[in-house]
Amino acid sequence: MALSLPKADERIMDVHVDDDRLSVDLMDGRTIAVPLAWYPRLLDASPDQRSHWEVAGGGYGIHWPEIDEDLSTEGLLRGAPAVRLAQTP
Protein backbone atom coordinates (compact mmCIF):
# COMPACT_ATOMS: atom_id res chain seq x y z
CA MET A 1 0.00 0.00 0.00
CA ALA A 2 1.40 3.38 -1.02
CA LEU A 3 1.43 6.17 1.52
CA SER A 4 0.45 9.60 0.20
CA LEU A 5 1.94 12.45 2.20
CA PRO A 6 0.70 16.02 1.84
CA LYS A 7 3.08 18.28 -0.06
CA ALA A 8 4.82 20.97 1.99
CA ASP A 9 3.79 24.49 1.01
CA GLU A 10 6.19 26.94 2.62
CA ARG A 11 4.48 30.05 1.32
CA ILE A 12 3.35 32.71 3.81
CA MET A 13 -0.28 32.73 4.89
CA ASP A 14 -0.13 35.09 7.90
CA VAL A 15 2.35 36.84 10.19
CA HIS A 16 2.01 37.73 13.87
CA VAL A 17 4.50 39.83 15.82
CA ASP A 18 4.30 40.64 19.52
CA ASP A 19 6.89 42.03 21.94
CA ASP A 20 8.71 38.68 22.24
CA ARG A 21 8.01 36.51 19.21
CA LEU A 22 7.58 36.39 15.46
CA SER A 23 5.13 33.72 14.33
CA VAL A 24 4.59 32.86 10.67
CA ASP A 25 1.71 30.68 9.50
CA LEU A 26 2.47 28.70 6.35
CA MET A 27 0.03 27.58 3.68
CA ASP A 28 0.51 23.92 4.64
CA GLY A 29 -0.72 24.50 8.20
CA ARG A 30 2.63 24.77 9.99
CA THR A 31 3.56 27.72 12.18
CA ILE A 32 7.15 28.89 12.64
CA ALA A 33 7.80 30.81 15.87
CA VAL A 34 11.14 32.47 16.65
CA PRO A 35 12.36 34.93 19.27
CA LEU A 36 11.93 38.52 18.15
CA ALA A 37 15.41 39.23 19.57
CA TRP A 38 16.82 37.38 16.54
CA TYR A 39 15.72 40.29 14.35
CA PRO A 40 16.88 43.62 15.86
CA ARG A 41 15.04 45.78 13.31
CA LEU A 42 11.75 44.15 14.23
CA LEU A 43 12.58 44.24 17.93
CA ASP A 44 13.26 47.99 17.76
CA ALA A 45 10.23 48.74 15.56
CA SER A 46 6.96 50.06 16.91
CA PRO A 47 3.95 47.72 17.08
CA ASP A 48 2.44 49.72 14.20
CA GLN A 49 5.55 49.20 12.04
CA ARG A 50 5.63 45.49 12.89
CA SER A 51 2.02 45.08 11.80
CA HIS A 52 2.69 46.62 8.37
CA TRP A 53 4.16 43.67 6.46
CA GLU A 54 3.82 42.40 2.89
CA VAL A 55 4.20 38.99 1.32
CA ALA A 56 7.22 39.05 -1.02
CA GLY A 57 9.34 36.72 -3.11
CA GLY A 58 6.50 34.79 -4.73
CA GLY A 59 4.98 34.05 -1.33
CA TYR A 60 8.19 32.81 0.32
CA GLY A 61 9.24 36.09 1.91
CA ILE A 62 8.05 38.81 4.24
CA HIS A 63 8.88 42.50 3.77
CA TRP A 64 8.39 45.29 6.30
CA PRO A 65 8.65 48.44 4.13
CA GLU A 66 8.81 50.96 6.99
CA ILE A 67 11.88 49.35 8.56
CA ASP A 68 13.40 47.79 5.42
CA GLU A 69 13.43 44.25 6.84
CA ASP A 70 13.12 41.13 4.71
CA LEU A 71 12.85 37.53 5.91
CA SER A 72 12.32 34.28 4.03
CA THR A 73 10.58 31.09 5.02
CA GLU A 74 13.79 29.26 4.10
CA GLY A 75 15.77 31.21 6.70
CA LEU A 76 13.05 30.90 9.31
CA LEU A 77 12.82 27.13 8.81
CA ARG A 78 16.61 26.86 9.14
CA GLY A 79 16.47 28.83 12.38
CA ALA A 80 18.75 31.53 11.02
CA PRO A 81 18.86 34.72 13.11
CA ALA A 82 19.75 38.02 11.43
CA VAL A 83 23.42 38.55 10.75
CA ARG A 84 24.75 41.25 13.03
CA LEU A 85 27.32 43.51 11.45
CA ALA A 86 30.38 44.31 13.51
CA GLN A 87 30.51 47.91 14.61
CA THR A 88 33.77 49.79 14.27
CA PRO A 89 34.83 52.13 17.05
Low-confidence stretches: none
CATH class: Alpha Beta
What is the second-level CATH architecture? Answer: 2-Layer Sandwich
The domain count comes to 1
Work out the radius of gyration.
15 Å
Strand content: 25-35%
Distance between the termini: 65 Å
Write down the secondary-structure element order: EEEHHEEEH
What is the CATH T-level topology?
NE0471 N-terminal domain-like
- Mean pLDDT, rounded to whole units? 91
The outline comes out as: elongated
Task: Explain what you see.
This protein has three helices and six strands. The chain is of the alpha+beta class and 89 residues long. It has a single domain (12-78), classed as Uncharacterised protein PF10387, DUF2442 (NE0471 N-terminal domain-like, 2-Layer Sandwich), CATH 3.30.2020.40. The strands form two sheets. It has a three-stranded antiparallel β-sheet. Strands 4-5-6 form a three-stranded antiparallel β-sheet. A hairpin with a 4-residue loop joins strand 2 and strand 3 (31-35). The radius of gyration is 15 Å and the shape is elongated.
